[in-house]
Amino acid sequence: MGAAELLRLATYNVEWFNALFDDDGKLLADAAPSARHKISRAEQAGALGIVFTAMNADAVMVIEAPDTGSKRNSARALEEFARSFGLRTSRAITGFMSETEQEITLLYDPARLTPRHDPVGDPVGKKGSRDAPRFDGTFRYDLNADAAPDLIRFSKPPLELAVQTAGGRALRMIGVHAKSKAPHGARSPAEVTRLSIQNRRKQLAECIWLRARVDWHLAQGDDLLVMGDFNDGPGLDEFEKLFGHSGVEIVLGVEVPPEARMYDPHAAMALTGRMNLTPTTARFWLNPQKRYFEALLDFIMVSPRLAASHPAWRIWHPWNDPACLNTPELHEALLQASDHFPVTIDLTLDHSPPAAIDPQT
């Protein structure tokens, strides 16, 4: 048996990354304002270069990656970004196009791993299917228990990758950007409630669809990572009681047998709720209250066999992570780069993977 293989993977939601590139994928690192408040494009681009360099990940699942469309190309833009800052993650791969200007794209080091877009499920188009179809299709699911299935589509289809590491291990990765629950456009308290419930239903349906795909991979014996921004977390809002579980809990599989559960230690901390010790991965300004608030939205969930190898997770939080706090350049870069902070996982991969166990025992 060869030496164990070490792999660092990251998920990072980069706010308004698309606004830093022109249609040819050229990086716009100039004095013009970025889409982030009071931060120039040069400042945001430079901050991102510092953060990506400091993470030194073998692959980064970029959430809200630059747009792909008739003129723009997400992978081309991210590869230009990597060239500009001399990153070893020099290649990028994306999947089904988003209906928004935000893609899910993996930026990776080709010397460390080889990913392939490999969507699972039947291509059903708009007519839909109840059997967890391919993520660019339509999922028929009865959200209201009224015997009339709702038609669910991802505005940002998850990115499904089959990955081969340099050491020969096969992994499956799913990049996720779930539906936001924010009641955008609401003009009255009643409309806020209506839109919040409607968006919560959509977000839960997306997570039920994701969980069905997780079940499929676990049944195949795959080593799986589900990573990205779920716009949700245990105990995040009052509507959770109305629906029973958060979307994150659904994807984790909190009510299934241990051998079928996904695991993320930050989600586990939030679920226990001990002394309100909940990590956070995002920081937002609330204008009515004139203050920031923080939330746990970004996760890297792993299947039981990977969890049994005792990975190390880290949230690159500018105040809560000592190394980030005590490195002034990195601390400031994390605040300028995005309203989310990266999450990394360090995996130790043996060529003969260990038997699956319950990581919570």
Can you offer a commentary on this structure?
The protein has 361 residues and is of the alpha+beta class. The chain has one domain: 4-Layer Sandwich (Deoxyribonuclease I, Chain A). The protein contains nine helices and 15 strands. The protein has a six-stranded mixed beta sheet with strand order 3-4-2-1-15-14, with helices on one face. Helix 1 (41-55) links the parallel strand 1 and strand 2 (59-65). Helix 1 crosses helix 9. The longest helix is centred in the middle third of the chain and has 32 residues, at 189-220. The chain is globular. The chain starts with a strand and ends in a 12-residue tail after the last strand. The mean pLDDT is 89.
The CATH homologous superfamily corresponds to Endonuclease/exonuclease/phosphatase
| Contiguous runs where pLDDT drops below 50 for at least 5 residues | none
Query: Tell me, what is the CATH class?
Result: Alpha Beta
The fraction of residues in strands falls at 15-25%
- Report the order of strands and helices: EHEHEEEEEEEHEHHHEEEHEHHE
CATH topology: Deoxyribonuclease I, Chain A
Shape: globular
Label the CATH architecture.
Answer: 4-Layer Sandwich
| Arrangement of strands in the largest sheet | 3-4-2-1-15-14
How would you sum up the major sheet? 6 strands, mixed
Please give the share of residues in helix.
25-40%
Classification by helices and strands: alpha+beta
> In the residues, how many domains can be counted?
1
Overall strand count: 15
Number of helical segments?
A: 9
First-to-last CA distance = 28 Å
Rg (C-alpha, Å): 20 Å
Q: How much is the average pLDDT?
A: 89
